[in-house]
Structures are given as structure tokens and as C-alpha cells.
Amino acid sequence: MDFKEDIRKSFNILLSDEQLLKFSKYYDKLIEYNTHTNLTTITEKEDVYYKHFYDSLTLIPFVNIKDGSLCDMGSGAGFPSIPLKIIFPELKVTIIDSANKRIKFLSELVEELGIDNVNLAHQRIEEYGQNNQEKFDYVTARALGNMTLITEMAIPMLKVNGEFIAMKGSKGKEELTDAKQAIQKTGGKLINSMYLELPNDYGERSIFLIRKINHINGYPREYQQMLKKPL
Fold this sequence. Notes:
With 231 residues, this protein is of the alpha/beta class. The chain has one domain: 3-Layer(aba) Sandwich (Rossmann fold). Helices cover 41% and strands 23% of the residues. Strands 3-2-1-4-5-7-6 form a 7-stranded mixed sheet, sandwiched between helices. This is Ribosomal RNA small subunit methyltransferase G. Keywords: Cytoplasm, Methyltransferase, rRNA processing, S-adenosyl-L-methionine, Transferase.
């Protein structure tokens, strides 16, 4: 495994010894915590480095994410926001997760890595979104839910001209087609799509960049309503 070289080749970023140490501590903390709290089924070192860390960084060429504010919806064990924060320390990160066990892990992880400007919100995403409109430069979601649902939750939280970055798997294109109406109704516009393969046959990824063109009130709706009547 040559993670440092792959990051250099793919993203033109040379990881410092300090950043490599942070990724190493991240891995150790994740595996240690996973022995008593289920955070991930991916535990082999190389798998974690590529399926979680490298995968989180695939949106770097896609958007100028070096600073500003980023909201990571339902990030689980901190993906993609914490790997991005390791690369770009100036980034202001907010992570929303409804599971207290994940928030507890993230709280310990942030302390362990010695990183600041990370706000952890233990709340349902749609409830947080109803109370935090037009707040962020970027919103990310990685393998969180179907595209229509996550679009309705994400776009209201963006500032106008902010960007929602949806990270999906190999079926992303079909999901995007289904979500066209949701993107339009919430004031968004698809700006870019990227389809890529992770190194070492670790799978296919789709990344969609949706810009908020104008703010539309009334979203996100209550969760059951979103499920019952998708946009």
C-alpha cells in the first residue's frame, strides 16, 4: 500500500508526516472503537485507507473546498469530512448524526487528532436543516440515502451559490435521474458529474455537484412526509 503516493498522483497533494500520523491515529481509533461499537464493517488497514480515507478525498479535484464551512450529513465515522479536515485544516466542519454512539466516537476522535473548528450535532438531519437554513458553503452526503431524499435535506442548508456534493456508488446515474425534480424544487442546479474508479479495484464512485441558485422556503419537510410524498 502506498497511500501517500496515490494521494500525490491523484490529487496533487503531498501529505506531510503530521497528516500521515493523523490518518494512522484515525485508523487505530476507528478499529479500537469498532471492537465494542459497530461503526464500520471495513476493518482491514488497506481497505479503510482506500474505501474510507481515499474515497473521502475524491471530491478534492471537483470543488474548491480548501476553506469555508462544510456540513457533513450523517457522516457515520467521519466520512468524508474528517479526512478533508486533515488535508485542509482551515475548513470549518459541522457533522450531523442522529446516533449518539457515532457522535461520541467523533468527539473522542477530534480530540485525539487535535483538530479544531469541528461542530458535532446530535440531531435528526431534517430537524437540524429546518433550523439552520442558508448557513453553509458546502454540504456533503456519502452513502446516506436516496438522492431525492438527501437533496431535500441538503440544499436548504446551503447559502445561495453554495454547493451540495453527493457521493454515490455505481448506481448514482439512475438516482440522479430520479432526483431531477427534487433538485429543481429546492432551488438547485446540477453543475457537474464525475464517475471514477478507486485504485486497486476498490469500486466505482459517482460524485454530483449541485449548486444552490435560489432559496426556497418550506424545505426540508418532516421525514415521514418526505418518504410518503417524495419530490
